[in-house]
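Rather than argue in generalities, we have chosen a single entry, letters for residues, whole numbers for local backbone shapes, without further comment.
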Amino acid sequence: MGMLRGVPRTVRLLAFGAFPNAVVSFTFVYLFVYLTGPRGLSVAQAGVISGIGGIGLVAGNFTGGWFGDRYGHRRALLTGACVSGAALITLPVLPLAALYAVLPLAQYASGVVRSANAALVAVSVPEGERRQSFALTRFASNGGFTVGPPLGAMIAAATSYDWLFLADGLGTLLFAGYAAAMLPSPGTAHTRPAHDPDAPGLWRELQARPAVLVLLAAIVCVDLVYRQQYSTLPVFLADHGHGTQFYGWLIAVNGGVILCLELPVTHALRRRAPLTVVGTGLLLVGLGYGVLIPGAGALFAVSMMVALTSGEILYKTTATAYVADQAPAHAQGRFQSLYAGASISGQVLAPPLGGALYTAAPALLWPLGAALACGAGVAVLAARRLRGPTTGLRVTGGPEGERPVPSAPLKGHAQPVPSAPPGGRVQPAPSAPPGGHAPAPETGSPAKGSAG
């Protein structure tokens, strides 16, 4: 397809491996049911175990990039996959007390894999060309997650929930084996540690890129709102006479629209200023929940989901690629890790905060959620005029949006990228010589993983 013409072979193979791995990643969809059913735990106990598992997942996303920058993204991916797979296989036979330690370990390792996946995509694709690659890996993962839960339900009904953990663990270990076989040989950007003791620290790099800081804060805010669809939304719909089947169809609308439209939309908008696309997407998320303010009828609910999904299509892939484009080579993993953690923070924050607000003042949930998401969108749109790093790229305003312009390099940074002529394309900077830190161009060797 023409829309995949700019996607390197490494990323195509990466997406190919991501799909089956996502299909069997259904364990945590049924974790709560497993804990309160076959394990016989109370709802409170299951909530605590599930909660600390979610904290482990978020922590792995936030910190996993450090391992990739320090030891190589390939090694971080393989280690995380092996730890997660082994832990999942053992969960059904572990005593209850061990679950409190092994489950968050498995989730933490899974978070490390997620951030390593994103970093592998980033170093496989030249700067300015990453949106379609991230969209493809998201397409593969979303496709797998669409197939996985119904398949998991069939397996659990025909056998037992223990087989879900076994299938998930074995699938993760097979994923690690595939990655080991497909990833490039040592010495490439996928495997070479990017650690540079003389390079600026992470916080200094972020301070030099204020637009990235604004974006990360905005993503945390909007993810808190976005993930209400998995916590308070079904309760809200049930309180207004809609059953579980109706809610299931709404979620199916979300998945179906993403699978059909995300790749072509990303391709069509690939030359648009990234922060403009992201900000518009966040505004659509706010608009979606704002639709629920006047009522909870079926038309309102479907309109909400269409707006929410449209916003997700615009902001998720574009924001991931923007953070990768802004990252210095020696901190690519940590930048992707920060974004990965921000983009999944709502998994931990949304249920307790949204549930508490809905319990205390149900009429305020959707107005406040819409206001928070729209505020995040406005902040990202305003960040287009913030100055970027003193090296590499800096973000400028103007009619062309976030146009890269050159500036003087500092020690430890990649060489600056020249600005694009009107209507033209930004050409990636050449790879740094040995000892440098610019991302290596695509070599045709395969990488493996899945983007979040």
